[in-house]
Amino acid sequence: MSVRVVCPGSFDPITMGHLDIIERAAERFDEVVVAVVDNPNKRGLFTIEERLALIEAETDHLANVRADHFRGLLVDFCHTNDIQLICKGLRAVSDFEYELQMAQMNRRIGGVETIFMSTSPEHSYLSSSLVKEVARLGGSVDGTIPVRVATALQAKLGTPADEG
Ligand code: PNS
Q1: Is the bond preceding 13 in cis, omega lying within 30 degrees of 0?
Q2: Residue whose CA is closest, atom 7 of ligand 1?
């Protein structure tokens, strides 16, 4: 049986940590859908279209990966797209509690199982929020996000002096 999994998230923007999980999922499953949540109550730095374009560019080398977006419940997206598994990265114990709650809820409301992959240690401290904060304050984000994403982030933020 062919297994299609979803890697869901905000991806605002995609980091090396996300890519690590997506690439490893792509090696192990037949198809990977990277799904950007479109939450009308939470405006990100990047638009949904910009996030999708960056994901598509960074996963272009992976033939079995595609990017999509969704509103509403993740389990509904899974059902609509014939997705059998939710695949998430676990960075640290601090992620575990909330991720476990979501996994149990998704199983209860939609019968969809979640599998966790341990984030590679070199990425375990990474989050999009932290990368954005460091970039905003003029710190180096080298190696935490792909070069193309860093360029897009810099263009969004302008130079620190521009922010006033
Ligand atoms: O990258 P994030 O922000 O940690 O991703 C969180 C995400 C998108 C996976 C989670 O918020 C989600 O699944 N949202 C969709 C709405 C939903 O299904 N909520 C119930 C979860 S049990």
Answers
A1: yes
A2: 9
Per residue in 41-94, pLDDT (tens digit) is: 999 999 999 999 999 999 999 999 999 999 999 999 999 999 999 999 999 888
Catalytic residues: 18, 42, 91, 128
Chosen CATH of 4-122 out of 3.40.50.620, 3.10.50.30, 3.20.20.450, 3.40.50.150: 3.40.50.620
For the chain, the first-to-last Cα distance in angstroms comes to 56
Residue 160 scores a pLDDT above 80: no
CA of 63 to the centre of ligand 1 (A): 25
Structural element, H or E, at residue 88: strand 85-90
For strands 31-37 and 65-70, give the pairing.
parallel
